[in-house]
Amino acid sequence: MLDQLLNEHKDTLINALTSKLGVSEDQAGGFLVKLLPMIERFMSDGKLDAGALMKGDLSALKNGLDLDMLGGLLGGGKDKAEQGIDAIAEPISKELGNLDNPMELLGGLLGDGGSDDLMEKAKKGLGGLLG
Length: 131
Known about the structure:
Elements: H1 2-21, H2 25-44, H3 50-54, H4 59-64, H5 67-73, H6 78-97, H7 102-108, H8 114-123
């Protein structure tokens, strides 16, 4: 699912990384190619609160990823990876906000539970997928 988002908005995400971080297009592309599958795995393992992501809370995401490796792709370390995640968060949030049901996209990553289950968990205050 996230790969579809990447394919449709790759130029926007790469531009966000190059303009905000001063990295090359190759570095930005390499970062995205590694980051998005990590996020998908993290979500499918039930370790990410999609509701928090929708609200812009990236802390759980950042805590669950190999930031040193991702930062190396951008020519830096952990801090550079965090800056990269922050740089693409706004365009991704904007695109998710344009969808009729953004939880459907995020829920599609979770398999059988789907978006209805995810939304129900979030509504009950169970901390979404981290609960």
